[in-house]
Amino acid sequence: MNEENMIAGTKEEYENNGFDLLRYTAAFSVMMLHYSSYCMILSRNLPAQASAVMSRVRHIALMFPGVVILFTMSGFLIAASFERAKTRKEFFLRRVLRIYPELWICTIINLAVVCILVPQMLDRGMILWVMTQIFGIANTPACLKTLPTGSINGTLWTIFTEVQLYMVLAIIYPFLKKMKGKHWMAFLSLLAAVNLVCAVLVRDGSGVMAKLIERIFVPYALWFFIGVFCFQKRQKMLPVLKKAFWPLLISYLIMESVIMQMPGYYTGIVTSVLLPFMVIGCAYCLPKIRLKYDFSYGMFLYHWIILNIIVHFDLMNRMPWYAGLFLFITGTMTASVISWALKGGCYRVVKRIERKAYKENSYRRIGS
Questions:
Q1: What is the CA radius of gyration of the chain?
Q2: For the range 53-61, what are the long-range contacts, defined as Cβ-Cβ under 8 Å and sequence gap of 24 or more?
Q3: What separation in angstroms does the CA of 310 have from each of 57, 183, 326, 331?
Q4: Can you give the pTM of this predicted structure?
Q5: Which of 57, 150, 165, 182 has the most CB atoms less than 10 A away?
Q6: For each successive 10 residues of the chain (368 residues), what is the average pLDDT?
């Protein structure tokens, strides 16, 4: 890694893009998919207008799945990060610092929430849950399976899946760099076939096989490695995808409106193949947008906790539908900002300790 020509390419490739905006868009899509789905299921007297709004929101979120967008961006940006890193150790350290501190803060907050809301439901299974959260392994303790949403945090499966993909990328990236276009097409075709096979294997939606496939990276690898491919072939792909974005978007919308349902794991295979290329093209059609603070990860982590609180107190039925939606969005954003601030505070404390230790060691060397 880190050869001089690894980051070859124009400055535009790295700076003139709208990935920051797309990251928020993807996180918001995930949020709204979950809220609209539970609102339509649990609201007993949802007005017709509100039902139409929630149905439309859910339809758009399913048409442009936030998880697919996030995995694609991750493949593109993580490949760039891997090339910038001097060693694999540095690469993984950066990934750990990016993912885990805020996840651990979220775990503490989530634990506090369930201890306050449903203390009578908790048992020793919570100990195992806390231990698995150290590594980001998604699971819901048996004692909390009866939560109205059925999950303590239904989005965490994507985090450990991402971690798996980072590990795979670190192993095979030297081989990917040597692959020509035809080899990439064969590789991505194989991943598309794997996605379809996984869809067949979990058709009944239950059993150990379905759970295992849900928790491993295999069915989601297609989206991630399309992102990696676009980065690897960026000098050729970016100009093409920028020009092709609008035609691709129009074609995609037509296909989505004409074709009722396509096979595929998590989403239809048309979405799994076309949307990742559209994401990269869209990022470079957007103007250069750099947001000073990134709360999108917090939005992803905390929206399910806020959803659980809203459902627990039956606020979807006790409040007007627009008030519940407003509470969901503002609650999620507030939790995200607080979490981001806590993470920053932890980093500053660690830096102070490191500086103090460095000074003490320097004094000892001078004294000796």
A1: 22
A2: 54/321, 57/32, 58/32, 58/33, 60/29, 61/29, 61/30, 61/32, 61/33, 61/36
A3: 19, 49, 11, 10
A4: 0.91
A5: 165
A6: 45 74 96 96 92 95 96 96 93 93 94 95 94 89 90 92 97 95 97 96 83 93 98 94 96 85 92 97 91 92 97 95 97 95 78 64 58
